[in-house]
What does this fold into?
Amino acid sequence: MPVLAGINSKVLKNGDSEPSPPPAGIYRIYNMRFCPWAQRALIYASVKNVPSEVINIHLKEKPDWYFSKHYKGQVPALELDEGKKHVIESAHIPEYLDDLFPESRILPSDPYEKVQQKLLLERLAAVAPAFYAAAQAANNPEGRDEKYAALVKAFEDAEKLLTGDFFSGKAKPGFADYLIFPNYQRVFWLSHILPNSPFSSESFPGPNFPKLAKWYRTLDSIPEVAAASQPTEMGVGFFNDYLKGTPNYDYGL
Amino acid sequence: MPVLAGINSKVLKNGDSEPSPPPAGIYRIYNMRFCPWAQRALIYASVKNVPSEVINIHLKEKPDWYFSKHYKGQVPALELDEGKKHVIESAHIPEYLDDLFPESRILPSDPYEKVQQKLLLERLAAVAPAFYAAAQAANNPEGRDEKYAALVKAFEDAEKLLTGDFFSGKAKPGFADYLIFPNYQRVFWLSHILPNSPFSSESFPGPNFPKLAKWYRTLDSIPEVAAASQPTEMGVGFFNDYLKGTPNYDYGL
It folds into this structure.
């Protein structure tokens, strides 16, 4: 059974015809190769070994038919049951996959531990808006210091929240680890580009964040996570264009 | 066993001492009587008959100790296990209560039906920011038409999404119904105050929304929902002050 088949296929865009529904038993993920939210679904499918295929979508020239998969036209969307069912939103798709495939469950079964993982993820997700603000500052020095400071603050908060090796609180990564990793990976890519980056691209995020640095290295080296990630040079290249306002969703293909 | 004991107690504020932990088996909800998000937890506890007590918090003069219950100091927060456990966030507390008390489960057990209820709630929640924008327009005519139009649009979208009697898709109300009701109740209160309100306070929301009107009447008349709600005159009175910038969290007590 394939897992994440077609992850590096070119995007479908307005004018392209709608692909036929996924075959029975195959879970299709609508994706954009550099989208951190869609990557959450990819990582989960990869770690859980879900039979899956990926279709990439042009986010500036969306096909009309895509709005029948996601009413807002965003990624990710999960399509199953030969096209008859859809699940959207980056935090809901993983939980749904856990409910559907409990034998490879990543979220805890205990209600209290489960809800704490979801709440921790939401708390850690403060890194995302801080990242986008800092990214905008790359080409615009105005307010750059404040934006960098806000991003550093998000990292400091995460460093404090990381009390063991993983945000799961266990000996192996869990829901919060896998789902927040893509956001950190975006900052890692950005650290190659940002003028006076507050983070080290060599020993990311740098010596002030020893726990996060070890965590990032560990997550990054998990084969199932790597299989759901773009290589660093692709990510850096994409963001170079993105910051100029000309993202190339097929960068490197 | 009491349910929602103390729902009309006066707020605790900065300087007030921390209450002793809830007794074993009692679920404490930190609340503000007019907060639609906290009311989600109250309705769920009421419908599920969870042994519970309510402590109201002054949202402009928060007690320092409250930040140990909710790191942002917001309501709702659920406190249990004699003060040793906390669950926050208005959509997570209800799901947690369903996991904890599965015999009175409101969310569907089927994974697909469950995630669709959660996604539908998020879609319906577009009414909330539109409500706050329209409320600000009460005392400021600038941009009022656009703000009213956005709120009407949220109602039109909901009217379309309500394909049966309830957002649950079943013969009785479910997760999405109970959790979105407080937001509609706020618009109902506001319709008594708004100059040129686009909604009728007599047959709320009005003749253009026949399905929502029936839905609202039905939800409003459920005793367990009423027990978790403030009476109309209280809500209207609170919002009158709120719109002047001087909310009285103990209004009517």
Remarks:
- Strands of chain B lie at 27-31, 52-56, 77-80, 85-88.
- The longest strand of chain B covers residues 27-31.
- The mean pLDDT of chain B is 97.
- Residues 186 and 223 of chain B are 18 Å apart (CA to CA).
